[in-house]
Design goal:
Length: 422
């Protein structure tokens, strides 16, 4: 048996960062930037008003106070998107809106609220003079040119994950496209004579293939592109053809056929088609796992495609996906932070660990004044998918811990969507 860490290390050592692609920025969300992004100009590109008000020369307001206004001639108005063709000169002010470039000669903006603007709001007349009730410091209510981004600076470094704010920065720099590490295409191949496609009626003895869909949804969640293949029956020839087809991708994930009872077929097929290891990983659920490289001949080139053989039980396949496939996909996407966040929680029920494996128990999390509580989501059989659906996280019982008593602390690895409990 190998440990979870050993298995993960071997998998990560085999997969590598994919090549970059260039595309429209909105399509790059959550992908990794493959270039430094340098600003071609300052942002903001000009000094501009941070408030609606009057552009003034601050030194002219030195005597202004409540009840003792300084009156200035209003010689113009400038809205956001326009440039004033007049300068503020002695005894004058220019009405200015938020975001509008500061007119020449002005060095401060006084808010409407600090003038008699609002007193005359309803008289309908545009007045030639404005009374200002406050002094103004130089630069007051002005956003200065380049205060956010300076021309020539590296604004986004290579390897940055593009979140909505970074997509916004790219747009603010006038960049409609970006170079990012492409998303891996992941083939998903379910195996088993008992499986029935979700759009067909069930016949006796059959069950619907749920793994393909749970795995495909998980691939989408970590940023990959899932490709669902037809169900492979438990016999050599079709399995071989399906695996070969599945290898037309960046990664192949199979489910089922790796446990002791029936993995021989998969094993035989795979050993003919590449190099594969069958592991028993010291974890529960999810002990049997296959990993290797499928060789794919393409004209004169032999391409090697990483293959992860997940166990068939629905919960086992999801939990092994979490521990092994997700980090592999993230690495292919150029990411380097694979760990899910964890919290420490008080366990509500005892968990026994009889055979020295690491247990990933499905738990629901709640929080009270003392901190987090973890409660088992019900029967923990590896076929009980509803217990996975009810879970916010996976409570981890270490290999060398035969019992966690109720009331003791456990580490809980948060699952996808667990932010909704916050
Ligand atoms: P196996 O690993 O092939 O022995 O399968 C273990 C268990 O998982 C069996 O009860 C299978 O019926 C079930 N199983 C295998 N593949 C799937 C699948 N794609 N969807 C739902 N259940 C599956
Ligand atoms: Mg099977």
């Amino acid at each position: 048996m190998i440990s979870v860490e050993e298995a993960l290390e071997k998998i990560l050592a085999t997969v590598s960062r994919l090549e970059p692609e260039e595309k429209a920025i909105l399509d790059c969300l959550d992908q990794v930037l493959d270039e430094d992004v340098v600003a071609g100009f300052d942002i903001p590109p000009h000094d501009n008003a941070a408030m609606d008000g009057y552009a003034v020369r601050s030194k002219e307001l030195s005597g202004a106070a409540d009840g003792r206004p300084v009156y200035l001639d209003v010689i113009g108005e400038v809205a956001a998107g326009y440039v004033s063709n007049k300068n503020v000169i002695e005894g004058t002010a220019i009405r200015i809106m938020t975001g509008a470039p500061l007119p020449g000669g002005a060095d401060a903006v006084v808010r409407f609220e600090d003038s008699d603007e609002l007193e005359h709001k309803d008289d309908g007349k545009r007045r030639g003079k404005i009374g200002i009730f406050t002094t103004a410091g130089k630069g007051q209510n002005i956003r200065s040119r380049g205060e956010d981004i300076q021309s020539g600076s590296i604004v986004l470094k290579k390897n940055t994950v593009l979140r909505p704010s970074e997509i916004g920065i790219l747009a603010s720099l006038g960049k409609s496209r970006a170079k990012v590490i492409r998303r891996p295409v992941v083939s998903i191949l379910p195996t088993g004579d008992e499986l029935c496609n979700v759009d067909r009626p069930l016949s006796p003895g059959k069950i619907y293939d749920s793994n393909s869909y749970a795995i495909a949804a998980s691939v989408l969640k970590c940023g990959g592109i899932p490709r669902l293949l037809d169900i492979a029956r438990d016999s050599m020839k079709p399995l071989k053809a399906q695996i070969s087809h599945g290898a037309e991708a960046d990664m192949l994930i199979t489910s089922g056929g790796v446990s002791v009872g029936d993995y021989d077929i998969v094993k035989d097929v795979l050993s003919q088609m590449g190099q594969i290891d069958f592991w028993t990983v010291r974890m529960k659920p999810g002990k049997p796992l296959a990993f290797g490289l499928v060789k794919k001949q393409k004209r004169n080139l032999v391409k090697e495609v990483p293959h992860l053989g997940l166990p068939g039980n629905p919960v086992s396949s999801m939990i092994t996906f979490e521990q092994f496939a997700r980090p592999a996909i993230l690495k292919m996407m150029g990411k380097d932070n694979f760990a899910r966040p964890t919290v420490t929680a008080t366990l509500d029920q005892a968990i026994k660990n009889n055979d020295g494996r690491r247990i990933f128990a499905r738990v629901r999390l709640t929080r009270d004044a003392e901190g987090w509580h973890a409660s088992l989501t019900g029967p923990q059989g590896s076929g009980i998918l509803t217990s996975m659906s009810a879970a916010d996280g996976l409570a981890i019982v270490p290999e060398d811990c035969p019992l966690v008593k109720a009331g003791e602390k456990v580490k809980v690895q948060l699952l996808e969507g667990s932010e909704y409990i916050w």
